[in-house]
Structures are given as C-alpha cells and as structure tokens.
Amino acid sequence: xxxxxxxxxxxxxxxxxxxxxxxxxxxxxxxxxxxxxxxxxxxxxxxxxxxxxxxxxxxxxxxxxxxxxxxxxxxxxxxxxxxxxxxxxxxxxxxxxxxxxxxxxxxxxxxxxxxxxxxxxxxxxxxxxxxxxxxxxxxxxxxxxxxxxxxxxxxxxxxxxxxxxxxxxxxxxxxxxxxxxxxxxxxxxxxxxxxxxxxxxxxxxxxxxxxxxxxxxxxxxxxxxxxxxxxxxxxxxxxxxxxxxxxxxxxxxxxxxxxxxxxxxxxxxxxxxxxxxxxxxxxxxxxxxxxxxxxxxxxxxxxxxxxxxxxxxxxxxxxxxxxxxxxxxxxxxxxxxxxxxxxxxxxxxxxxxxxxxxxxxxxxxxxxxxxxxxxxxxxxxxxxxxxxxxxxxxxxxxxxxxxxxxxxxxxxxxxxxxxxxxxxxxxxxxxxxxxxxxxxxxxxxxxxxxxxxxxxxxxxxxxxxxxxxxxxxxxxxxxxxxxxxxxxxxxxxx
Length: 494
Ligand SMILES: Nc1ncnc2c1ncn2[C@@H]1O[C@H](COP(=O)(O)OP(=O)(O)OP(=O)(O)O)[C@@H](O)[C@H]1O
Ligand SMILES: [Mg+2]
Known about the structure:
Blueprint: H1 4-16, E1 21-24, E2 30-33, H2 50-55, H3 65-72, E3 76-79, E4 89-100, E5 103-115, H4 118-136, E6 141-146, E7 151-154, H5 156-162, H6 166-172, H7 183-192, E8 201-210, E9 216-228, E10 231-241, H8 243-296, H9 301-327, E11 336-338, H10 340-352, E12 359-365, E13 373-375, H11 377-394, E14 398-407, E15 413-420, H12 450-460, E16 464-469, E17 475-482
Parallel strand pairs: 12-14
Antiparallel strand pairs: 1-2, 1-5, 3-4, 4-5, 6-7, 6-10, 8-9, 9-10, 11-13, 14-15, 15-17, 16-17
Helix pairs in contact: 8-9, 10-11, 11-12
The protein binds adenosine-5'-triphosphate (ATP) and magnesium ion (MG).
C-alpha cells in the first residue's frame, strides 16, 4: 500500500487531468471520479452505474472499452461513434485494468482523442462518398475541369442539361466545347478578375452554353477556381438551367401585354359604342329624309345628284358606325360550330379576282376536314379578309401568300397561319400593330382598325393571335382557336 502523501499527490494529479477520468468496478459501478472541469468533485456520480450516468442506459453499452478490457485483460481503446467531418482526431474510449494479484479489481476509464492515422483512411472514404453524393445529386449541373479543360466531374444534372453521358464527358469532352463562340475565355477572364465577386469567384453570371445536340441553353453560372497555394489547378462550375424560368417569364410578359391590349380595347370599345349610338339616330334621320325628299319632290337633276351624294355619304357613315360597333363587339353575334375552310374559301373567292391579287401566288396547306370551331361566320370572314388584305398590301401585289391550318400539339386547338413574303414588320413597329388606329400607311389609305378588329374577334372566340416577323423575311400571323366539343348528336357541349 502506498503512503498517504503519495496517494494525495496521485489524486491531485488525477484531478488536474484535463480529461474526464473514472474508476469503475468490473460490474460497471463508478468507484471514483476525477474533479469536473469546474474544479468541483463529482461525488454525486460515485456509486452509480457508468452506463446509466454517461449513456442514460439501463444495461451496459454494446461498444464498451471496460467490457473489452475485462474480456481481454488488457487495456482497450475503442472508437466513439462520431459523425463529425473533423479528420484530424478520432474520439475514443480508453479503459485500463487494475489488477490485484491475478484478478482485475477495477478499470480506469477515460475519453481520449486519438490523432487519426488508421481511422483517417476510413473517414476520408466516408467524407469522399458524402461529397460525391452531394455533387451527383445536386439540382444544378456540376462540372469541374483541370487547367487543360479536361473534365474531372460531370454530375447527373449536367448530363441532363448537356446531353452527354458522364463517361463520354470525362473521356472526350473539353470544357471549351460547352461554350459557344469562345465564351469560355470570357468566363475565365471574369473568374480571374478581382472586380466582380473577388478573385477566383463568379456569381450568378448568365451565359449561354452548348448542348451536345447543338441547342443553345441559357444558364445561370456560379463558378470558382480551385487553387493549390497560389497555383490554379482546376475550375468548378454550378450550371443552373434557366430555360423553364425564361419560358415562364416570357409567357407572363405575353399575358401582361395581352391584358394591356384587352384593357385598351375595352375602354376604347366603350367610347366608340357611345359615339356610334349617338350617331346612329341622326344618320337614320338623314337617310330617311333624303330618301323622302327624293321620292316625293320633283327635283331637277343637279339637286337629285346632290341628294344622292348625301345619301351615299350617310350610308358610308352608317357602315363606319357598323364597323365601329363590330369592332367594339357591341353587335350581337351568332356563334355556332363552324367549318373554318368555308371562311377561307369564301374570303379567297372574293379577293382572288381583285387586281391586287393577280400577281400573288396563293398556297393552301390546310386540313381537308378540320374539326369545327365555335364561331360567328361573319366575324371569321372579317378576320380572314383583314389579314389576307394586309398581307397582299404589304407585298404590294407581288409575292406568295400561304395559308396553313393544323391541330395544336395538345390536339385541343386549331392553329391557323397566314404568311406572306412581304417586307416584314420592323421590330419597333411590331408591338403596336394591334393597337386601334395604328397604321404605317399614308393618310387616307388605312384606318389602322383592321388588326385591332381582328384581335377583338379572336379574343371573342376564346383564341389567341400573335405576329412573327423579321424585316426582309415576311410576316406570319398565327391564330389559335379552341375546338368545339360536340356530342354524338352533333350538339355543342363545350
Ligand atoms: N402582313 C403584314 N406585313 C407587314 N406589315 C403589316 C402586315 N399586317 C399589318 N401590318 C402593319 O400593321 C399595321 C396595322 O395594320 P391594320 O390592319 O390594323 O391597319 P392598316 O392595314 O394600316 O389599315 P386598314 O386595315 O384600315 O387598311 C399596318 O399599317 C402595317 O404597318
Ligand atoms: Mg389592314
């Protein structure tokens, strides 16, 4: 037995020890414990079971250094369960058996952090697997390349965006191949510059990339250079596909424009309807009384001619009022299932004989028996008349007019395309063509109401219209109408 003063020193040394140290019996009972980190004795745990105090269990732990030391009779060191990614240390439980003769009397146990060497490899593997999973399941395309542009990482989303399978990208692709027009140099220049997001970093840079099939894809790119010391060794980029985002934005923009257009039409409609009604009565009076005077009085030829002129002008005014009412949709319409081919042939029949059409080749690429659309025949004729006349006027009587009808991709709508080989519509004019009274024709030659009327008609039928044109490349008007759903008796049900 050691002397009391020696024991006292030993206890002091143990209590100043930074780690938690306990002595447990072979039955896991705590016989002694070092002072806590607060410098106070931890007498409250003495006498209790170690698994209960430290692990809140009712029986010994499965992974227990005391158990192992008791089985082997030797000091035991077992790793603690640990999910941290700190690779520099490996937390362990350590247990040292204290013998009395040949019998183990107690165990000294403590937590221990081992500088990892053996565990390092396992941990590296674990963290590598974690990183690999993170990269491969990322929602953005992740591509890393070495200094020569050779691809090092190409995740699943990158495959979806670019259309290369991973092995193909790793073996054959160079990072330069995914940028059109040497854009890679721009990206690298921006990455190396200290101006934007700091040296070696590029954030939210919108750039076009090239897919395997040649498609250009808009991307938001976050990228960085990987350095070893000062030396650039690789680049890594996160490619966010913007196609869907831009499609939605574009659609919203179109809807906004359509709404603005409808609002304009609605307010102008109200105004025009008011004016038209005001004019209708006096016009009726002028026509009626002029006719009466012509019938009842025996007038000389000159006076009769003047009255006929008044009558003709009054009738022209009445027609304009009618057009205005038509345009503002204040007249009653008769909607019924309608064969679009009838409107096309009727309109062409009226127009083809006119001189303006003599040198225009007309190509019809239309469905022979299109499903019916719910429409007002007169309005549809009016629509075709305006669009075809515009085309012929734009071509100045020489060129090719193409009429095409087909089902939309989803099969629910009828698409009508009217194309001409005219001079096209300049970019700055295109947004205004559906505006009421917008015309580029000389004064007196056009009212600028044609297309706004067409717009009103299409809208009235639940359809859409848009114009595609590039100066010098002709113009195409594309109209979509919903089909009428008929039941088997031929009645319209939708
Ligand atoms: N097929 C086309 N090619 C080129 N420009 C066109 C075409 N269709 C319409 N436009 C342009 O759109 C403008 C508006 O057309 P809209 O039919 O509304 O009026 P307009 O033809 O000028 O007059 P109106 O129809 O009263 O004769 C035209 O002045 C023209 O600039
Ligand atoms: Mg017109």
